[in-house]
Design a protein that fits this description.
This protein is of the alpha+beta class and 565 residues long. Among the domains are: 184 residues, Sandwich (Immunoglobulin-like), CATH 2.60.40.1730; 75 residues, Sandwich (Immunoglobulin-like), CATH 2.60.40.1910. The chain is 22% helix and 31% strand. It has eleven helices and 28 strands. An eight-stranded mixed beta sheet has the order 5-4-8-2-1-11-14-13. A five-stranded mixed beta sheet has the order 16-17-18-20-19. A hairpin with a 2-residue loop joins β6 and β7. The longest helix is centred in the middle third of the chain and has 23 residues. It binds zinc ion. Zinc ion (ZN) binds next to α4.
Length: 565
């Protein structure tokens, strides 16, 4: 379930040379089914750097189709495909071989009939080979084969940009999250194999290999499925939730960082406490929360945040990498973008949440003034380097790579920092922190009753239009014009400031791509040391400033504006 049917089914040609990407427009043979369950059994040969896997996929047909199209990275070879059916009457399982073909990063399975909407489908795929080695994890993903300080193997996978098809056959589109996923990892028996969800047990095979089994009960993004293999030790700490429950949180960490993990745990659990107070319950209480030490910086793997940072707090008093990835449990995993064009819903909201965390720590330590200073200073740190090359939230369907990188190859941080500045500006516009925070929280939890759900129904889609609707309600007005200028076209709006007698006249200059759109965000102006809010009806505002009195437009950095001459 959790299937979102694409409005239009665009055919794309996958050639053998096509780079692996995630979220390409769905082809009809992908859109024809809803992947409901993946059961992955993977044996990892660390010496050979190969994998040997069997994937069982359960799906529901939603459009008539004679074939099923899955993604699987080209270097991995498929050796057999079977449809698993039941004999009518006896209920015995029968496996029927199915013909298949590979084109580039695609696997096309012919069903030998036209499957009809409502039919359930079970496909078992045997595959294996040498998976892609991650060139620059986690951004350019794949397997990371490394060693701990004493030379013991340490293996991890990251695949947000390319998708889980780097290591298993999957429908690699954010609009289709499986209802649940099971992962069984067979590894050398002196190592641990940690994956998402609930630990189901470990079987020692007596031949130097062991299998560890994990089960994710709620819906999950395919890139959110991950693992770490290594001589992991477990540092545990009790978490007392502000919502009343308690949980044990394990940090799986390699031996040389055990002391660091133990020292850092209270800070990491304080992140969890803050996020629950601010955005509602941690959604995967049924699966628990775990932290996995990884040989790359980090990733928001659901219920198993990947952490490869420095085990230190920043100047604001929190461990930013852990906080950022944990914030994604709300902004990415609980509220998920159905298309990568809405990537900013993951990254900008997680990045903006960091500013709220800095503010909250300062509030507790030094009161409201210190809180505002910390918040504004934190946002100032995200002000530079905006690319303004592509819209933060384009309307057209997009892949991960199209959002992460610009056509000229530069990385696109705008889905993090520029989007965070849009949210920051909306806070100024709404001018009521309770309403502003409620607008964010209701994107994840539309009602109090929703916050009590732990059986998988809590997962939600959050698109840019959902964000617009929620903030428009909070602002008591339609914010379409603001969203159009800030998010749907690439440039940052400029502000023209003129003197007219005893007045300053402010005029928003809307970029050409949004010509005709009314952009009327109020503008903070400091006059003689006092900050005032200048209303901008129709995009034009006026405020009295006596001659000789010092003034400045938005010196505290409250809104996203291009003030360059
Ligand atoms: Zn992120």
């Amino acid at each position: 379930m959790r299937l979102l049917l694409a409005a239009s089914l665009l055919a794309v040609a996958a050639s053998a040379q096509a780079p692996n990407d995630s979220g390409l427009p769905l082809e009809p043979e992908q859109a024809a089914f809803d992947a409901t369950y993946y059961d992955l059994a993977l044996a990892v040969d660390i010496d050979a750097r190969t994998i040997d896997g069997t994937l069982l996929m359960e799906a529901r047909i939603v459009q008539p189709t004679a074939a099923i199209l899955l993604d699987l990275d080209a270097p991995l070879e498929v050796t057999a495909v079977e449809e698993v059916a039941y004999v009518v009457g006896s209920g015995d399982e029968v496996s029927l071989p199915r013909a298949f073909g590979r084109t580039g990063n695609r696997l096309r399975i012919r069903l030998g009939r036209t499957a009809q909407p409502g039919e359930g489908l079970r496909l078992r795929i045997a595959y294996g080979g040498a998976p892609r080695v991650a060139p620059r994890p986690p951004w350019d993903g794949g397997f990371t084969w490394t060693e701990t300080a004493d030379g013991t193997p340490w293996v991890a996978v990251s695949c947000q940009v390319q998708g889980a098809d780097l290591w298993w056959p999957v429908k690699d589109h954010p609009s289709d999250e499986a209802d649940s996923v099971r992962v069984a990892l067979t590894v050398p028996s002196d190592l641990r194999a940690i994956s998402n969800g609930v630990w189901e047990g470990r079987t020692d095979h007596g031949d130097g290999m062991a299998t560890e089994r994990w089960f994710v009960s709620p819906p999950i993004n395919n890139y959110g499925v991950s693992f770490g293999i290594g001589p992991y030790e477990t540092v545990e700490m009790e978490y007392q939730s502000p919502l009343g429950y308690t949980a044990t949180v394990p940090f799986f960490v390699v031996p040389e960082r055990v002391d660091d993990a133990r020292r850092q745990m209270p800070s990491l659990l304080a992140d969890l406490d803050f996020l629950e107070r601010t955005f509602g319950p941690y959604a995967w209480r049924g699966d628990g929360y775990k932290i996995l030490h990884t040989p790359y910086l980090g990733m928001e793997h659901q219920s198993l945040v990947a952490y490869g940072s420095t085990f230190e707090d920043n100047d604001y008093g929190f461990d930013w990498l852990h906080f950022h990835e944990l914030a994604h449990e709300w902004w990415a995993n609980l509220g998920s973008a159905p298309d990568w064009r809405d990537f900013w819903v993951h990254e900008s909201f997680a990045s903006y949440s960091e500013a709220l965390r800095a503010e909250d720590i300062a509030l507790r330590a030094g009161g409201p003034e210190a809180a505002e200073a910390a918040y504004l200073a934190f946002m100032q740190g995200k002000r530079n380097g905006h690319r303004n090359a592509i819209p933060v939230a384009p309307r057209e369907t997009r892949t991960t790579q199209q959002m992460y990188a610009l056509p000229d190859g530069r990385s696109n941080g705008d889905i993090y920092v520029k989007g965070a500045w849009v949210i920051h500006s909306l806070r100024y516009l709404i001018d009521d922190d309770a309403r502003f925070l409620a607008a964010m929280r209701s994107l994840l939890y539309p009602s109090a009753a929703h916050e009590a759900v732990t059986d998988g129904r809590q997962a939600r889609w959050v698109s840019t239009d959902d964000v617009l609707a929620s903030f428009s309600r909070a602002a008591d007005r339609d914010l379409s014009g603001l969203f159009e200028v800030y998010l749907r076209q690439p440039e940052t709006p400029r502000l023209q400031v003129d003197r007219d007698g005893a007045d300053l006249v402010l005029r928003w200059l809307v970029p050409e791509a949004a010509a005709g759109v009314v952009f009327d965000l109020p503008v903070p102006v400091v006059v003689g040391g006092d900050e005032r809010r200048v209303a901008m009806p129709g995009g034009v505002g006026r405020t009295p400033v006596p001659e000789g009195v010092e003034w400045a437009v938005d010196p505290n950095g409250r809104i996203l504006v291009d003030l360059a001459e």
